[in-house]
Amino acid sequence: MMRTILFDFGGTLDYPRHWLDRFVVHYRAAGIELTRAQLDPAFDHATGTGYGSTRMLSSYGLTELVDFLVHQQIAYLNRHGAPEVREIVDAASAGMRLPEIAGFITQSFVAESRIGLAASRKLLKILSARFQMGIVSNFYGNLQNILAEFDLASFFGVVADSSQLGIFKPEPGIFNHAIKALGAVPAETSMVGDSLEKDCAAARNLGLTTIWLRHGLLPAVDIGERLDRGDPRAADDRRESGGSLHLQGGQVAERSGQPTDDQIAGTEQTQFVPDFTADFTIDSLAELAHLRWWRS
After folding, report:
1. What CA–CA distance (Å, rounded) separates 254 from 239?
2. CB neighbourhood size of 281 (10 A)
3. By percentage, how much of the chain surpasses pLDDT 90?
4. What are φ and ψ of residue 8, in 5° steps?
5. How far apart are alpha carbons 217 and 178 in whole angstroms?
6. Could you check whether the bond before residue 170 is cis, i.e. omega within 30 degrees of 0?
7. Chain centroid offset of residue 276 CA
8. What is the pTM of this model?
9. What is the pLDDT of residues 125-159, one digit of tens each?
10. Closest among 50, 60, 232 to 144, alpha carbons compared
């Protein structure tokens, strides 16, 4: 019988899409036309800088963290980006618009996360009646702050934040830390995450049941209804269907005319052919509340 669930955070609990893929969409909506491949090195640079800045970031909430990452990304693009991207960034800088653009990207990213975290809160409340739960995440040392900020901290008996521990997935030590802290048994523990390599393969090697959250698109006809219900997949799929977003009164609103292309569709989960298959594959975290095998 399954008694313990470990969750990844980014791309799983906060919003069902890798952060790089989400940033691409928000940059384009802010008027910086770039591809996933063009943003990737700037994203990696900002992530690495963040991992090395734990002491500073440990007091940050989500908005402050995303703002830090966006400024790191833009600074990298300004120095090392593709010529066409540097031209856009230079023009924005000359026109004193970079702070506005960075602020837009940050606020729209956070607003999107708020939708996903609200949906996760409802699910976690259901699951907490049956399971003890924890988080195993490659993060920046401030994950506890963000969980408290969005009223999620009480659901988790352990939060294994890699920057706090100095151990990063897929290293087994970060999983073992969470298992030991919960007094869990690997055979009665599952790991839920969006990365087959970092979440599922690593957890399987320790004897955990693995559940892969597959990032997929929804039929366009369902998007409006799911947005009304707060389904975190819906806003992303609306973008994929051709709309883009802007901030309106502090909230994310739809704006037409911002083009999308196949580069955005080439997401983290489609970049490489996986050589590992998880025990279970789900298309929405909501499925966790209905899987019959939990009781077996």
Report:
1. 9
2. 14
3. 72
4. -75, 165
5. 32
6. yes
7. 21
8. 0.82
9. 999 999 999 999 999 999 999 999 999 999 999 99
10. 60
Count the neighbouring beta carbons within 10 Å of the beta carbon of residue 78.
Answer: 17
Q: How far apart are CA 91 and CA 128, in angstroms?
A: 50
CA angle 129, 131, 134 (to 5 degrees): 120
Can you name the residues that pair with 189 across neighbouring β-strands?
Answer: 4
b/e string for 205-228 if b means 16 or more Cβ within 10 A?
A: eeebbbbbbebeebeeeebeebbe
Q: Which amino acid is at 201?
A: A
The secondary structure of 54-72 as a DSSP string is HHHHTT--HHHHHHHHHHH
- Please give the domain boundaries of the chain with CATH numbers for all domains: 4-295 (3.40.50.1000)
Please give the radius of gyration of the chain, using alpha carbons only, rounded to the nearest integer. Answer: 19
Numbers of helices and strands, H then E, in the chain = 13, 8
Task: Assess contact for 262 and 35: CB atoms under 8 A.
Answer: no
Confidence of residue 241 (pLDDT cuts 50, 70, 90): very low
CA distance 140 to 56: 10
